[in-house]
Write a structure and sequence with these properties.
alpha+beta; 32 strands; 14 helices; five-stranded mixed beta sheet
């Protein structure tokens, strides 16, 4: 048996080991003693070599049984189950020391290696694999851990890495930062790991599709400081040397980049917010600078968080992490980051709080399956800013927000919301403010217009979050659900708005003769997208009233003729600014208005005359046909009020 055992592990010696017992009986008696002695010594050397990988030994070159590091690609041979990060941190630098533990389950049998992402800025002191010292190589921002035994399918492993190091925070995507807020004279150390920088402060698997089931973050720091993190603060333990350990635990699935901490001289300003229909309440925990003036100046803005949680819980479904908390850690970051259950942000401005809170649904509860589909995160969270204005401030402020978004998008006409494969590792492209955020929000708004039923639109959002909650999703997953719920075809919409580039510019000409309103639309585009198939709302102003009709442009050049009695004084396309488009007017009434001839109603100010107003939305055929409003215009307008 020993021959078979050693032949697997030490093939260079297998023939010798098998040869010894075969030749022993043929040796002279005087040689047998020396043969036994030399064999014993050889076996001892081999046994020492076999157990050596179980000792605490860092190897600087490729060990026996390890693959060529230059050929290593992404590994996917295990599922992450749990992260336990236990670090000592201060508020004066980015130096950290401690350990990171990853509990995982093997899903590829026959392997002897676990590969973790771990930045070269960190120094790995030692590694434990299921409590035994393991050999490892730390190179190219990877930690290659060699198991002393073959791993089978569904094997549970615990990998504990003891390490230390610091992070240079000069980069915009450094992962960890240290800075002073000069206004409040508070120094802060904090993490922002999105998209690829979690590995610079803890060993992990940077794969969006592999969420950990839970995470513990224990931060030891000076006793006059506080450390905020994910989940619930389960304990604060005083330690020798005037230290305190803050023990945070979260039991919800979490993506690697949403794990965080922030350390500073904080004050805990917490309260509870009611939400839902069953009297549920949620802890809102805010780590703000420990300064009386800070709380006095920010309290009203912080308290709006409760209103936003109630709003989004009604629109999107209950807050996803309601058994724990929602909170904020203030840092001098110049923005915000939606760390799960405890956002890191610079201040409590309305749109920033709304945006990061909405990420708890879109981005955290449901995460983009790949960075190319960052729209799932940023497009919907940006649209939540609009919804916050719409429901909690005013429609006028919401319209102003959307108008500003359109202006930013149209500053240039290149680029798609979908991130092309060759840009999937570019942080600046992934987080392109114009495309991922503003255009992303604009197309969510246009989807709402296409559906033209708010109850159904928000039902779809809730169903999407319910279906993909605690996991990941792509834009195509959302498109498929849209089509299932609406029985509409969204192929053209996604091809032109999500995968396509630019926006349409529509030149309009209209005239009204003999009770027939003729509208001609000629569409040009600003990019390679040849045609945008769009539903255009038209506000038609007559002497007595306004009405809205909806016509769909499915060709670059199209005319519609509508039987309409009375006198049309003005026509305005897309009066509520649903569409990411430009409209140019070429009608006689506008030309006369611009030239100052006579007293005419401005097509851009349809409310300049007092009149009864009834909005009618009717979708007409696309091509060059004459259609009639059902029954009579007067009866239709008296019967319907839409939007």
């Amino acid at each position: 048996m020993s021959g078979i055992f050693f032949s697997k592990n030490f093939p260079g010696f297998s023939r010798m080991i098998l040869f010894i017992p075969l030749t022993y009986n043929h040796l002279p008696e005087g040689m047998k003693y020396y043969t036994v002695l030399s064999t014993t010594l050889l076996l001892a050397i081999l046994f020492h070599s076999w157990i050596r990988p179980q000792c605490n030994l860092k190897i600087e070159s490729v060990a026996s049984g390890m693959p060529d590091l230059n050929s290593i690609t992404e590994t996917d041979n295990f599922d992450v189950k749990f992260y336990f990060i236990d670090l000592e941190v201060n508020d004066s630098s980015t130096y950290i020391s401690g350990s990171g533990t990853v509990h995982l389950q093997v899903r590829t049998p026959g392997t002897r290696q676990i590969i973790l992402d771990m930045g070269n800025n960190l120094h790995a002191d030692s590694v434990l694999l299921n409590g035994q010292w393991a050999d490892y190589v730390h190179q190219n921002d990877r930690l290659f851990i060699n198991a002393p035994f073959w791993l089978s399918d569904e094997t549970d492993l615990s990998v504990q890495v003891f390490y230390s190091g610091s992070v240079s925070s000069k980069s915009s995507f450094a992962g960890m930062y240290n800075a002073i807020d000069r206004r409040w004279n508070k120094r802060v150390t904090w993490t922002i790991s999105e998209p690829f920088s979690a590995c610079v402060w803890f060993p992990c698997k940077q794969d969006l599709t592999d969420k950990a089931d839970s995470v513990y973050v224990f931060i030891t720091t000076d006793k006059d400081l506080k450390a905020g993190s994910n989940g619930l603060l389960t304990a604060k333990r005083l330690l020798p040397g005037e230290k305190i350990r803050h023990e945070w635990k979260s039991r919800y699935p979490v993506a690697y980049y949403l794990i965080s901490f922030a350390v500073s001289e904080y004050r805990d300003y917490s309260f509870y917010a009611g939400f839902g229909q069953e009297g549920d309440s949620l802890l809102i925990q805010n780590y703000i600078y420990d300064h009386d003036l800070y709380l006095e100046s920010s309290r009203s803005q912080i308290d709006i968080t409760a209103d936003l949680i109630r709003l989004f819980s009604g629109l999107f479904g209950p807050y996803p992490f309601r058994d724990e908390k929602y909170g904020h850690c203030i840092v001098p970051s110049g923005g915000g980051m939606e760390h799960q259950t405890m956002t890191t942000l610079e201040d409590f401005s309305f749109t920033l709080v709304a945006h990061e809170l909405a990420h708890q649904w879109f981005g955290n509860h449901v995460t983009c399956a790949a960075w190319q589909d960052i729209w799932i995160n940023e497009g919907f969270a940006s649209y939540a800013e609009y919804l916050g204005y719409e429901h909690l401030v005013s429609q006028k402020d919401a319209d102003r927000w959307m108008g500003n978004a359109h202006m930013i998008v149209k500053f240039r006409d290149d680029g798609s919301v979908y991130v092309p494969e060759n840009d999937a590792r570019s942080e600046s492209r992934i987080f392109d403010y114009r495309l991922s955020y503003k255009k992303g929000a604009a197309i969510v708004h246009m989807i709402r217009h296409e559906i033209n039923d708010d109850e159904l639109f928000f039902e779809i959002l809730r169903d999407f979050l319910s279906k993909y909650g605690n996991g990941v999703a792509t834009a195509m997953d959302f498109k498929n659900l849209l089509e299932q719920k609406t029985c509409m075809d969204f192929a053209d919409f996604f091809n032109q708005w999500y995968f396509g580039e630019g926006y349409p510019v529509v030149s309009l000409h209209w005239q009204h003769h003999n009770d027939t309103l003729t509208i001609s639309a000629m569409q040009k585009t600003t990019s390679a997208t040849p045609l945008f198939r769009i539903p255009i709302d038209f506000r038609i102003t007559t002497i007595d009233q306004d009405t809205i009709i909806t016509l769909r442009q499915n060709e670059n050049n199209v005319s519609w003729a509508i039987q309409l009695p009375g006198t049309v004084t003005a026509l305005e396309a897309d009066p509520e600014k649903w569409l990411l488009a430009d409209f140019l007017y070429e009608d006689d009434a506008l030309n006369r208005f611009l030239s100052g001839e006579g007293q005419h109603t401005s097509p851009f100010n349809v409310n300049s005359q007092k009149k009864s107003k009834t909005d009618v939305v009717t979708e007409f055929p696309e091509e060059n046909i004459i259609c009639q409003l059902p029954d009579s215009l007067r009866n239709e307008m008296e019967a319907k009020t839409v939007r």
